[in-house]
Specification:
Trna Endonuclease, Chain: A, domain 1; five-stranded mixed β-sheet; 2 domains; MutS, DNA mismatch repair protein, domain I
């Protein structure tokens, strides 16, 4: 499936993009075609389901990894890939101040609401309690749980379920 890199998104213009969106819930449909984030596009490239062109030249997998690193998205990509490989539907969480929204296995965005917000951080990331509290408060306010995904230097991920509780 061919696609074109356009700024910070990848556009799939043929009918296969619609099928990919409808079946596997990647990206967003626009007038131009299926719009994928860079993390979604790299994941599909790794699965040999997508070829990406930039100004008519095909990008290699290494080119895409370099682009992801330049945009400081590598840690988020590691988490995205892990969650998709586990069978979850992963969508952007930008609206909620998180990296991703996570749909339970077997559920899709059109069938209900996501149950989790995912915040991604490298292992050496420092967070103050006010920021952590605000992430938990937002998640609780929209009836979701917060998963804090911590990625270590070996790219292993530890997930922490953060919830607001009443003492």
């Amino acid at each position: 499936m061919n696609s074109e890199l356009s700024g910070d998104v990848v556009i799939v213009k043929d009918i296969k993009g619609t099928k990919l969106h409808d079946k596997s819930h990647y990206g967003n449909m626009t007038e131009e075609g299926l719009q994928l984030s860079l993390t979604e596009a790299l994941f599909l490239m790794e699965k040999d389901k997508l070829e990406i062109l930039k100004e008519g030249e095909e990008l290699s997998l290494e080119d895409m990894f370099q682009l992801i690193r330049e945009k400081n998205l590598f840690t988020s990509y590691i988490v995205f890939r892990d969650l998709r490989n586990r069978g979850y539907i992963v969508k952007t969480g930008f609206k909620y101040g998180s990296d991703f929204r996570l749909y339970e296995r077997g559920k899709s965005p059109g069938e209900g609401h996501s149950h989790y917000l995912v915040k991604v951080a490298p292992e050496k990331y420092t967070i103050n309690m006010f920021d952590l509290s605000s992430y938990v408060r937002v998640a609780h306010g929209v009836n979701k749980k917060l998963l804090f995904a911590v990625v270590d230097e070996e790219n292993d991920i530890t997930y922490y379920n953060m919830e607001w509780t009443r003492p």
